[in-house]
Amino acid sequence: xxxxxxxxxxxxxxxxxxxxxxxxxxxxxxxxxxxxxxxxxxxxxxxxxxxxxxxxxxxxxxxxxxxxxxxxxxxxxxxxxxxxxxxxxxxxxxxxxxxxxxxxxxxxxxxxxxxxxxxxxxxxxxxxxxxxxxxxxxxxxxxxxxxxxxxx
Length: 152
Hints:
The chain has helices spanning 2-24, 28-38, 43-62, 67-82, 95-105, 108-113, 115-130, 135-151.
């Protein structure tokens, strides 16, 4: 009886580790389902990624001056400006966040001495000068210009 149970257990392990993965690798959804049902190898990583996302969202909510968000979004704007052919209107889903974050860190004196702050300013200025007409862009352009004019 013990040998029989051992064979069944070995067959199950062979099936679980050698055959099932071949089926579940077909799509990202099935891969996630496989690890949810049959393996806990990535639970710690999944938990850490989710905790990092929540921390980032809390920082954005609590502190509009998240410099990393500004760096990332400025880089995205820069890429959009360099794209050929360039879209007349782009970045609508993150331009307000970018301008809000820029306004929170904007300091004219830093603009004169800090290359990164100058980069933020230059990219946003170029974006607003070359973008097409849009209600969101008009509103954020005014917010940007008010902050720059207020502090200079």
